[in-house]
Amino acid sequence: MVQNDKNLRLPPYNIEAEQSIIGSILIDRDAVFKVISMVDPADFYRDEHRWIVKATYNLALAEKPIDIVSVADNLKGMGKLDFVGGVTYLARLADAVPNSANADYYAKIVKDKSIMRQLISVGSEISELGFDESNDVDTLIDNAEKKIFSLSEKRIKTYFVQLKDFLGNSFEAIERRYKLKTGFSGLPSGFPTLDKITGGFQSSDLIIIAARPSLGKTSLATNISEYLAGKEKKGVAIFSLEMAKEQLVERMLCSAAKVDMQRLKTGYLRDEDWSRLTDAYGSLYEAPIFIDDSPDISLVEIKAKSRRLKIENNISLIIVDYLQLIRSKGKVENRVIEISNITRGLKNLARELTIPVVVLSQLSRAVDKRDSSRPILSDLRESGSIEQDADVVMFLYRPDPERRDEIDLSVAKQRNGPTGRVRLWFLSEYTRFAEKTSDGKQLADS
User: Fold this and answer.
1) How far is Cα 330 from Cα 340, in angstroms, rounded to an integer?
2) CATH no. of 11-160
3) Global pTM?
4) Which residues are designated catalytic?
């Protein structure tokens, strides 16, 4: 029988790059500090090289000289000098490189080859998972994704960067804001007072919008997405766990067209409603809004779908409606820990994709039992680490229960800015919010 050529293939490696790293360290002690945070001894393909690199790292961490003599002595102490080829092989490695200038370049090659070998290994492990019938499919998929994500994190692992290397980028961003004078540096929400307080939704921020039921959380989120995608042409992903996509689209049409929701639901539309709906249809049709209405979605699925959408459509904002409906994988001690794990995962997602993630959340009943209707941070339901993980926390509440159309948006926490309040009109028939001016009038639409 002819053996399959694929079974004869050697795993990826680059012996010359491995030798060049070691040679660079042996002729220049400082080279070890270029590579020590980039590659581990386990990243080297040859066992002999792993032991030599381990010896150089031992000496570096002990703040001792690194040269052929000291490395040989360290290897001898570990009983590995003869195994690696003795002093003769160390001398050959030192002679093989003219200087240490490219040590970090060689380290990247070695790391990439190591990741490729690990990918082969993980692939084999994942194939074995497929034969494990003791676990449900969701658990198996989650385990497989974790293995792949673990490799991905190793690949994009960041290291210390000297301030001067990115100071220029920050200064250029400040200069752009100075010239444009827009009043904000992040993504606009469509509500000027809110943007003035927050400076816009900032990259990598986790933003919580919380309220008691039926106070307009979803309406506010869709209003923001309509503005950002419609006016600014920025891609928005919406994970709608509570509402079907058809219901969400009808809300958006009513809001954009300013057509009474009840008339749209019952079919008793006026002639002028049709022209407004047609215009709204045209603007929403061009808006880069992406909706996933899976009702039983997990954090792992949200992260995987968001990554794909970011790559394929370069989305600028993620909205999750709402936090308490997200399903977690596996067994968790209690609900508070479960929610804490989810919020931490969403914060990590915002950082990974460098875009804001807006998460809607329920408030506990405690707010209903107080004289003041204004929520506080401890009112966050099953709060756990919501307050800790969130960069911005906002509350929707009705300051006067008798005035149903007046709702305030309180910025109760902002990690990098002030707190504040935005006074809003809630046009419930249109599922739409509008800012309230100081004299109590409605601010014209942006």
Assistant:
1) 14
2) 1.10.860.10
3) 0.66
4) 242
